Amino acid sequence: MPLLENGHIVEDTWQTLTEEDPSPANPAAAVIVPFARYLAEREAWAAHEGPLGLAVKAGEDVEQLTAEDLSRVSLVALDFPKFNDGRAFSSARILRERLGFTGRIRATGEVLRDQLLFMQRCGFDSYLIPRADAEEAWAAALKELSVWYQPTADGRPWITALRTGRWERQEQAAE
Amino acid sequence: MAEQIVTANRLNDGIVVYFAGDARWVADINEARLCPAGKDAGEALLAEAKTGSYQATAVDPYLMDVVRDAEGRLEPTKYREKIRTLGPSVRLDLGKQVWGPKGHAA
Amino acid sequence: MYRYDEFDRTLVLERARQFRNQVARRQSGEITEDQFKPLRLMNGVYLQLHAYMLRINIPYGTLSSRQMRTLAHVARTYDKGYGHFTTRQNIQYNWPTLEEIPEILEVLAEAEMHGIQSSGNCIRNVTADQYGGVVAEEVEDPRVWSELVRQWSTLHPEFSFLPRKFKIAVTGSPSDRAAVKVHDIGLRAHKNAEGKIGFEIIVGGGLGRTPYIGKTIAEFMPAEHLLSYLEAILRVYNRYGRRDNKYKARIKILVDDIGIEEYRRQADEEWESLKDGALTVPQEEVERIRAYFAPPAYETLPARDSGYEAKLFEDAEFRAWAKVAITAHRQPGYAIVDISLKPIGGIPGDASADQMDALADLADEYSLSELRVAHEQNLVLPNVRQSDLYALWQKLKAHDLATANIGLISDVIACPGMDYCALATARSIPVAQRLSKHFASLEKQHDIGRLHVNISGCINACAHHHVGHIGILGVDKRGEEFYQITIGGRADEFAKLGDRVGPAVSYDRVIDAIDVIVNTYLKLRQPGEKFIATVERLGIGPFKEAFAEENLDAAA
After folding, report:
1. Residue C296 to residues C133, C370, C510: CA-CA distances in angstroms?
2. Could you tell me if residue C154 is inside a domain?
3. Last residue of a domain, one of C351, C373, C398
4. DSSP assignment of C148-212, as one string?
5. Which chain C residue has its CA at the smallest distance from B79's CA?
6. Most buried pick, A22, C35, C332, C427, via CB within 10 A?
7. What are the domain boundaries of chain B?
8. Is C301 inside any structural domain?
9. Mutate to test the interface with B, among C22, C33, C40, C50 (most CBs of B within 10 A)
10. Domain count, chain C
11. Statement to judge: residues C156 and C284 lie in one domain
């Protein structure tokens, strides 16, 4: 499936392992490991030299990841088994806002164009999408709404902060 | 003995339509394509209705049972379908019942 | 009233544009019906039996006269000249075309209205006490907090694909007119010993297939923490609410499964990371919103208007209307006026475009340009001078809007039922109409006194039949309409679910059945005792017996 990142279709350099696949022969390969398998084989994966990603299913709790785990992991793929299963939205925000994860968060499974904005706001920045030919339309979907009431991890200003001048103060403090 | 037809709502305005064969969807129940009762016949008709670009016209087609009244006109057997064919029973000025008492053109 | 600023306006206009694009993509075949359906639902667009239905939010039931005129305009221009006010303080149009809906949404956006999240598995339009800001007994204005919750919940990125729909109701009075105990979350604003505002937060109430009275998760949540705590409650629900069975997916099932203590523990744990964060409500934002709800320019008037009192004495018809239609206002010399959308034999909650325009004019003339929608499917003029009541009543009469039945047996709450709704298993409106005609005599109705009848056309309980004093639920029995009847339910601060009085009765026998219940009450009541009090004093026994004696489940 095509991969959308930063508004463009890009090559997917990651290899996704199943529960049964043998560990990669090349220790420098970029691999995405099922979350449960990672938790069971933590020690073994600590030795993996290449980029490490985790594939988290909708029912799995990302809080099980320790700070040490997260320092090792550079991508978390959160699955949408159905487009209307919104659990991964919460997982993404917990990763970003509570656990402070700064790597990529990839949306997999049934990812619809009309959900991209919600996903982005919750902290996703990588999307496996069904069609490559609509790159522009998918990128445009991220610009359909420009104002939001909620503060979330994507760092956009939210309306209350704009109204109260809190946003400007925060920006100035950052400079 | 009841026969079957396929019904749906029209995409652009939502009104009740019936499958008339040849990818046509019509508003008048009497122009609907009939098939005999029974699972196999029904499924075949529904499959025919759901071919091609039906999605551009009809939303969520399904089978319904009909019988003929004394004048040979088609009439749904279920109360819900009667209301769909006619219009709200509490607003006789709205829906297909304005065409006539049986909800189809005279 | 709250007015949009540039941010609110931008959001609603962008959303309307986004929906126009989604409709175009559906029409061109780019997306399927399965993919389009959740998108249209989240903009209030249903596909019903005869046509599309568009549900427009009326946040916490407040409307300006200008907005009411827009609703009339939509009814006249894009629909068939009427609209239906719902039990969730919204309005529904029954005949719009999909092609025209984007335009309707743009027209509504100009009047600061929209259909966002009026359906779908997301946080629905927040409802509140229809007397917010005007009723004498009020502790805190629920509109301020409802508006805050409305904004927080609108297009919430995390909570737009919940296990199931989610409804929040707000009250700020001791008497509960918002049914906060039968919502997914109910908020009751109150003050602590230091006079600080906070909320009792009630979770897991609901009706439908499995009704529950909600449980208190927090007795007093300081107001500044309201949004962060709601976020914690919702996050627990979004992650752990059931998604395998839509009938077990509401928060009430999760609360019942794990228990309120465990739910509270999980919410508190979640809240640890949210508390005192960006969602902490800034006092200046509360004040900004509160300023919109500042009392209008009331005149200084005597507490009792002698002209009004004289008319009450002289005109028995006016007196009968005033007795049920008027509620005490917090401002001396003013009154809150309920307007019945239940003319005898009419369709509960329907209003014609002409009536809507007339009401907008009356609001301008008599109610400082404001109206409210009550969840009983009636309307309210919240700011009427007592000295204007008689003139107002005469004008209401001219528009068939002065039926003196507020809170009485013909003030029936009814969902659209199988006459319109794709989910319904039986009709509700004709049952309401027959009941209303049967008890047409106002004298009889006033003698029976306060009695709420709620009729739902299916188990989803849009008419809240479980909490009706008399609840009627339409069911399908082998292709025929049957009705289950409960009594003793109530939706107020003493919320309780009704009990079945006997087997389901046929469409033809429903009115006989109600008659038996009412006659039993009339026979057994003590002087001045209301229906619900008699049922609570005697229990359901005598009603069951009377019901059984009549053989109501036998064919007529």
Report:
1. 10, 10, 46
2. yes
3. C398
4. HHHHHHTT-SSSSS-SS-B-EEEE-SSS-SS-GGGSSEEEEEEE-TTS-EEEEEEES-B-TTS-B
5. C479
6. C427
7. 3-78
8. no
9. C50
10. 4
11. yes
Domain boundary among C265, C290, C315: C290
A114 → closest Cβ in C22, C156, C162: C22
From first to last of the 556 residues of chain C, give the pLDDT tens digit: 999 999 999 999 999 999 999 999 999 998 899 989 999 999 999 999 999 999 999 999 999 999 999 999 999 999 999 999 999 999 999 999 999 999 999 999 999 999 999 999 999 999 999 999 999 999 999 999 999 999 999 999 999 999 999 999 999 999 999 999 999 999 999 999 999 999 999 999 999 999 999 999 999 999 999 999 999 999 999 999 999 999 999 999 999 999 999 999 999 999 999 999 999 999 999 999 999 999 999 999 999 999 999 999 999 999 999 999 999 999 999 999 999 999 999 999 999 999 999 999 999 999 999 999 999 999 999 999 999 999 999 999 999 999 999 999 999 999 999 999 999 999 999 999 999 999 999 999 999 999 999 999 999 999 999 999 999 999 999 888 999 999 999 999 999 999 999 999 999 999 999 999 999 999 999 999 999 999 999 999 999 999 999 888 765 4
Domain that includes residue C378, residue range: 306-398
Task: Give the start-to-end residue ranges of the domains of chain A.
Answer: 3-144, 146-175
Using a CB–CB cutoff of 8 Å, tell me whether A117 touches chain C. Answer: yes
Mark whether C202 and C140 lie in a shared domain. Answer: yes
Q: What is the CATH classification number for the domain harbouring C375?
A: 3.90.480.20
C394 plus C443 within the same structural domain: no
Ramachandran class of B94: left when φ > 0, alpha when ψ lies in -120 to 50, beta otherwise:
beta
* CATH assignment, A3-144: 3.20.20.70
Specify the CATH number for the domain of residue C439.
3.30.413.10
Handedness of CA A160, A164, A165, A166 (dihedral sign): negative
Q: Residue A99's closest chain C neighbor by CA?
A: C273
Q: Which of residues 1-60 of A touch C (CB under 8 A)?
A: none
C329 and C391 fall within a common domain: yes
Question: In terms of domains, do C137 and C283 share one?
Answer: yes
Nearest CA in chain C to B58: C33
User: SS3 for C322?
Assistant: helix
Same domain, C376 and C481: no
Whether C424 and C488 map to the same domain: the answer is: yes
Burial pattern A148-174, b for ≥16 Cβ within 10 A else e, equals bbbbbbbeeebbbbbbeebbeeeeeee
Instruction: List, as one string, the DSSP characters of C285-318.
Output: HHHHHHHHTS--------SS-HHHHHHHHH-HHH
